[in-house]
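Dear Dr. H.,

I hope your travels went smoothly. While you were away I took the liberty of generating a structure for the chain from your last submission, since the lab meeting agenda had it listed for discussion. I wanted you to have the full record in hand beforehand rather than looking at slides cold. The sequence, exactly as received, is reproduced here:
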Amino acid sequence: MSHANRGKEAEKQFRNACETLAVQQGFTYWRVPDARTAMGNSGGEGPGDFLAWSRITTPAGLADRSYSIEVKEVEHEYRLPKSNFKTDQRARMRMLELAGVVCYVAVLFKPLKKWRVTRLSYFDSGTTGSWDMTNLELVEITDWVKVLHANYSK
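The corresponding predicted structure, in token form, is as follows:
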């Protein structure tokens, strides 16, 4: 897979999952332009591939939540190489977390045609060349996006 096309299938699947939910009131999203899409006009990489906003009614009233989701795609069954999620990218997402944004990383494991999704804090440690994600549940991304909107505890 060429460097320019890496991750495009995962981004397309994630966008489609968001589209199915965006027709409902209380959920919207935005695909953050990457450097290639913005043709150099973006001022650098963003803090995630997608931003999403959700509003649900709880017993305490309306609850709003903001999300940043970094979407990754790998040709492996359970590992995400550190080279695919560099320190500066994690740092930009961490700044959003400090401002109250909930940050997730969604990884499409292409051989399995399934996803593993976790909070940014999962990637804070590690001195090896990749993260072993076998301890995370395999999910369908459309189902996970629905849960994201309906359940803030994820």
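Two observations you may find useful: DSSP finds three helices and seven strands in the chain. The domain at 3-150 is CATH 3.40.1350.10 (Trna Endonuclease; Chain: A, domain 1).

With kind regards,
E. W.
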